Amino acid sequence: MKKILSSLIQTAAISAIVSTANASVISVNAGSDGWTGWKVTNSSTTEFADAFLDPDPPAIIGVNGQAWGLRAKNLATIGAAYGFGQVLSVGNSVTISVSLGNMDGGSVVGFGLQDGDGNNLLECYYVGGGTDAWKLNDGAQEDITGPVTTWGYSSSSNNTKQTIEFTLLAGNEYSLSFNGVEATNTGMYLSASNISQVRIFNYNAGDGASNDQYFNSLTVIPEPGTLGLVAFGALVVGAGTRRRKAWGTV
């Protein structure tokens, strides 16, 4: 009986480790990684739109003194996509920080979660000159309710940062939080949940350094329970080994 139990424990632990092997954690930031891994797209010339590393971003968004910066004017769009190398599973979360600069009326700045073909499954963004709230679009646009999501000019004297976390739930539902406060919108579900990349973008925010838009600290985290299984499995295997040494031959 002890031998059967020991075998079952080892099998469960190994299965947990194997199932987690493909659920890698992604953690990148501008200060350590620059634009490595990002695919930048530009609807215009660099005269009207550009993706850059700012050596002196607002302190609130900088990591090691740098942030991912996007600038766009004259109706241009600059975007950058980062692939996860895997499709998100239920319980996985994606976190990114955003600090808005000044925005011309009708401009749009934010990020989208996409499938492998670049189709948006969810977008979260701010519209210049619109209502004083971030918006989400999972098929229809609506203001985000619950968190304080107002616009903030990202100068050194007056800036805000939104750390936005998306978590995929069962049945294509999801949760969304801003600086740790969860959105209270109803009907938060996706048409499909094969999310495999994030895209940050700036459409026509305007001319001048005060209209630059900043992003940083992208993290993709597997389901916490899955990571726990690995630790649990390792402990169980270790405990089983110690017991066999104490018990002798099973």
How would you describe what is shown here?
There is one protein chain. By secondary structure, the chain is α+β, with helices and mostly antiparallel strands. 19% of the residues lie in helices and 34% in strands. It has two domains: 1-23 and 226-250; 24-222, Jelly Rolls (Sandwich), CATH 2.60.120.200. The protein has helices at 2-21, 30-33, 224-247; strands at residues 26-28, 38-42, 49-54, 67-72, 77-83, 93-99, 108-114, 120-127, 135-137, 141-143, 162-168, 174-178, 181-182, 197-203, 213-221. Helix 1 packs antiparallel against helix 3.
Provide a quick synopsis of the model.
This protein is an alpha+beta fold and 250 residues long. Helix content is 19%, strand content 34%.
Low-confidence stretches: 1-22, 225-250
**Total DSSP helices:** 3
Report the strand count.
Answer: 15
CATH architecture of the largest domain: Sandwich
Determine the N-to-C terminus distance: 9 Å
Overall mean pLDDT stands at 81
Q: In total, how many domains does the architecture comprise?
A: 2
Query: What would the principal axes of the Cα set say about the shape?
Result: globular
CATH C-level of the largest domain: Mainly Beta
CATH level-3 fold name of the largest domain? Jelly Rolls
Oligomeric state as shown: single chain
Q: Tell me the β content.
A: 25-35%
Name some characteristics of this structure.
Jelly Rolls, 250 residues, seven-stranded antiparallel beta sheet, alpha+beta, eight-stranded antiparallel beta sheet, 3 helices
